[in-house]
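Continued from yesterday's entry.
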Amino acid sequence: MPRELAGSALLRDARYNKGTAFTSEERRLLSLDGLLPPHISTQDEQVKRCFDELDHCATLLDKYIYMQSLSNRNQVLFFRVMQERLVDLMPVVYTPTVGEACEKFGHILRDIRGLYISIKQKGRVREILENCPTSKVRGIVVTDGERILGLGDLGAFGMGIPIGKISLYTACAGVNPNQLLPVCLDVGTNNSALLEDTLYTGLCQQRVRGQDYDDFVNEFVEAVKDKWGENTLIQWEDFANRNAGRLLEKYQDSCCTFNDDIQGTAAVTLAGILASNRISGKKLKDHAILLAGAGEAGLGIANLTAMALAEESHITLAEARQFIYLVDSRGLITKDRPSGGISEEKSVFAHDIGKHIDRLDDAVKYLKPSVLIGVTAKPGMFTESIVKDMAANHEAPLIFPLSNPTSHAECTAEDAYHWTNGRCIFASGSPFDPVQLNGRTYVPGQGNNAYVFPGVALGILSSGARRVTANHMLIAAMTLAKLVSVEELAEGRVYPKVETIRTVSAVIAAAVGEDVYSKNLATVFPKPTSMLDFMTQQQFDVSYPNYTVDSKNTHLVIVAD
């Protein structure tokens, strides 16, 4: 740190600020005397103060606002608080509360984080990156705000999503937050309510599409590669279906990049199915898998599951796809469907069943699936009759309503357990409370992408990987499924307890790292002798460092323990 970062400037820099925990010596050296109350707090005392404030917040949104404020003034303390109360605070800093925060983003805005790059700045993107306060960016989460969760086009208000994802990189996997950057590419919004909102923070214009949009995104990608290198991780977040898949396809072979909505969702869903198979003793080929929703998320799940099934059963991808069915807005995807609407991506999952089925409930009756996955963002899509049909055909059907936020889930945990008399294996995208039924407590699983993308990112960044591959997502899914304990499986869980997620992420990172090195994609050498130890050592420390000055009195330095 430069020596001039002292006094009030230091207290305003969340990366280094310790607040009332600066020691007497640090206060003297760093020109902090008189700027802080005389009592020197321990970090434990600061954490208690934070807990007290959180406990007095009236709503989850109030807690979100408080946590964002804490993050913007004391980064280390923010992550210590997150680590201490991860189960309670994950739903605060991310789904479901982040959905409400995004809808009200301009109305609750206190501090500015990340970079906002508008299409009106096209031609100057590389220049704008020079304004980034982080000198060495290793990972970026970027959105254009067009498809925020199940809420639709929120434009620049969608910046809450990259900010939340960046927070989970560190809270769940220990990725160094000083190397991460949230970015909003603002090309306008087609949300009329936002365009009329005087507190809207983005461009007040209709969305730019076509070649101008593509050129703008490409300028951003090339600028990132030029400034921070080709192995800078770019995570695409909440782009609309029309752009998400094609941008991933365009850049995945020339950048270190992935799309969490497509690939992260696929990995965590596949992990849930694989973990359930440890309970039932089944293989993937023993299932008929039905997906309600054939957008980018649904296709991502279908493709990764087919990849896993082909590998597990030693069959071709084409053969594996015969176990997977998709229903979109026009019905079951079948060959020569009269209603059409089958893209090239969907066509590989088109079945020849000799009839057209245009309703989900009819598809369930006809196909008798053992796995039902929802990525439609349509609440109530999984009706009582559909779920009861699943239970009538299978002893322990898998019901996965994955749409976010909670209000958009295809069914509730309570309904799923009651309609199946407690026999279903349930997992949702956002959290549900435990359900009491027949004298037993059922703890709903949450197929939260946070089980996957932070650990994958830790593995990719720590190894300096040049690319993120589909195999990395398959490895993450298989590793996650194995990490569910026997005791957790006995409770009907298909994901590990959230309390263990930092350890889970390190194990996933190690598995991904091994593949990175084996495929000659790494740029960090030598290869670690123990990949798990290496990944654990990379994790961010939530204890405060001690500061002093160097011998020339020109820079602040961290005193080693």
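--- second protein ---
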Amino acid sequence: VNHLCDVDTHYVDTPDHEACAQHKNDLYWKGSAANFTDVHMNFSANFFPPFRSEAFFNRCGPNGVADTSGETPAAIFGDFVDGMFDYNTMDQDFQEIFTNLLKYWVAYADLDGLRLDAAKHITLDFTAYMSTELRAYAQTLGKPNFLVIGEEAAQDEDWKAMSLGKMDSDPKDPLNTMVPVPQALTQRLVDLKSTYLANPQFPAPGLSSLYNFNMSGTSRNALRCEEDSSTVEAYFSSYARRTLLSQSVPQKGADADAQLWTCIELHDWPRFLGLTPNKEYLLTAAVTWLLTAPGAPILYYGVEQGYNGNCPAASDLYDASVRDVVAETCSASTMENYGNHPDSLKRQDMFLSGPWRLESAVSEVNRTANITRLPSTVSTKPWHEDEMLPRSHSMYRHIQRMVAFRRSCPALTQGSTLMHEAANYPCGTLAFSRLPFGGEGAGEVIVLLSSGGPQGGDAPFEALPLNGEINRTEGQLYVNAMSPGHFGTVRHDQNGQQFLHFDDSPGNLPPGGFVLLVQEGHLTPFNDKLGIALCKGAAAFTVPMAKARPSSFMRAIWYIVGGVALAIPAVALILGRLTKGQKTRTIALADDTDASDTL
């Protein structure tokens, strides 16, 4: 939502990049700026007609990598690169046209949410307008929980928080801001107040959700054994977390971080196992964390197949020049800094007929790794018969059972988090509770997790100190969902401190090992197919779902209405400008017969 590409469109003159970005930033924050002359654009004949207006573009010229990844005015008002023209998202005519385009697609494609890529690079007044208007429109289509999530890749948590939920403002009195915010945002909130306050599910103007990059990056580093495990515990009392959650508008019946997206891998991050390609146990621990930690977990494609982003040693390439290019790409696998790691190492082919098949920590998958020429014909096999997608190996089955377990336990999908213990060294243990929404103990899930183990060995567990004011009774049992014959017993010392003792069945956590403990009486019988006992009573904790969708006839009517709604303002605004001149899926992780195995 931040730029438009056209190789045949260009600037007439060279923009003063820094001065232009600062001028736009003054208008954004202060509402006024010193005189500044923007450069002109020469639009090609096939440039997208609704946007063929200089006023719809900032015209500050291309950024460097530091500009785009930084937090200076250029990050918002500069072009991504040469030829990717940055929209002037403060222009309210542009906001209306662009949002109407999105409304059309919401109706036409029956969308339940939209992800805004690189949302950091648009102005917050546009974020508020687009989010508010899309949610209001979706309500008229029978979608009360329409999700608008932004990829805010800023380092500064304050920057991210300002785009989320309440947007550092009082939704009922936008002139009352919590911290300084752009004047353009405040004025837009005044205009939008009656619309967003009328939304009972989300009475606020900002994004419904964000990627929780801070939590995701912290846990990823610890689970890769690059940082102490205690850094994960520290995050839960950090300024970064408090700042983000202060602006979050939680879903009904859920904690404030339940809808924030979390990950251990992503399309812009090197593969989790990139530097340790054969340590499948590290990925096992990371997936366990991801699917028991707070937030909405992202399983980036290929994690269930153990992809590590490393190139196979042998390849079927006969052209020397091609081999050299491939070798150069593959040699960058250890360069993990932003901008240095090739995208191709984290975006490989996933079918045997593809030429770019990288390695996996799973031997059954790794045997298919090869870099070869594009075949003359593409395989016609159904996807579930492809040799690159086996579904009986350990990593696939682990993710399958953990997804099912997460879905069955309301504490994992909607509840709060209470840390108990975290090792002050890399590859250490983590112990935490997930509590059902409201903080009561019934349905509590206690997780013990060892990423790599101390010095790569087993981590013993005999007694775990339990934090929090939870009413756990003396002698209460917590049963291991992975092995119902294994359990822990609640005991209190003379000071009233609660412990979970395993003296009746002590054990060791191997590298990548974990224990999932649920209060006795809150588990269903052990599921032999999944290899785990699921939680009971999830139906009692379900979030209210949307009402029945409109009929096909009514949807067709909405498509027509959406098209008209798009066409009228677009045509009117374009004609107006001509007359008055220019203004300077669901990922299936199981066979089709078992719905509980689907993410």
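Confidence is low (pLDDT under 50) at residues 539-599. The longest helix spans residues 552-580. Will compare against the first tomorrow.
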